[in-house]
Amino acid sequence: MRKFLSFFFFALFLISCGSTKNTGKVSEAIIGKETAKGKPSRRVGPNKNIATSKGSSSKEKIENTEDVKPKEIRENIIDFAKTFEGTRYKFGGTTEAGMDCSGLVFTAFQKENITLPRISRDMATKGILISFKDIEEGDLVFFKTSSKNIINHVGLVVEAKRGEVKFIHSTTRAGVIISSLEEDYWKKAFVEVRRVI
């Protein structure tokens, strides 16, 4: 019995944020179209700047009714995500009763009427790939924390200053916390950065 419980908890840890909970919503908006110079455009509004990344659809649209600065949207998303700090981990969760890593990111973006896929590995197909040196607050950081060699964890960058990157995410051990990419575990598991806004 003890071996079974150990195996069960180990398996749960390995899949951590690979939730497949169906939220019943369709992916509606990805903001941040690459311009000719390769930088994201700066205006956001209805049917403007729809993402061109793989996995995007020309039918995707944004629900915002007026032009809003991307920086303001990113700040709102970060501020809302931080309200969940201390929330316990719950596989498939998206509320203050408990949430997983992709649930936190999904919920924070949804507050700004931006619907991302519900699973971290699917989130990693949206937006545009960003060089680590160009990382900004509001970008998404992706990780491979299991032996399956697939993206299974996501965090939201809340600070990118003086070479240190801090991100908010939900972990199986501590729930929603802010971590640093300087921590050995996250540095080794890090895969890529993507910009959705």
Tell me what the structure shows.
With 197 residues, the protein is of the alpha+beta class. It has five helices and eight strands. The protein has helices spanning 2-15, 70-82, 101-110, 120-123, 184-189, and strands at residues 94-95, 98-99, 128-130, 140-143, 153-161, 164-171, 175-180, 190-195. It has a six-stranded antiparallel beta sheet with strand order 3-8-4-5-6-7. Strands 1-2 form a two-stranded antiparallel ribbon. Strand 6 (164-171) and strand 7 (175-180) form a beta hairpin. Helix 2 crosses helix 3. The N and C termini lie far apart (48 Å). 36% of the residues are buried. The model is unreliable at 7-15 and 18-65 (pLDDT under 50).
Which properties best describe this structure?
197 residues; alpha+beta; endopeptidase fold (from Nostoc punctiforme); six-stranded antiparallel beta sheet; two-stranded antiparallel sheet; hydrolase
Please name the CATH architecture.
Answer: Alpha-Beta Complex
- What is the succession of H and E elements? HHEEHHEEEEEHE
CATH homologous superfamily placement: endopeptidase domain like (from Nostoc punctiforme)
If you average the pLDDT, what whole number results?
Answer: 77
Give a concise summary.
With 197 residues, the protein is an alpha+beta fold. It has five helices and eight strands; from the N terminus they run H-H-E-E-H-H-E-E-E-E-E-H-E. The strands form two sheets. It has a six-stranded antiparallel beta sheet.
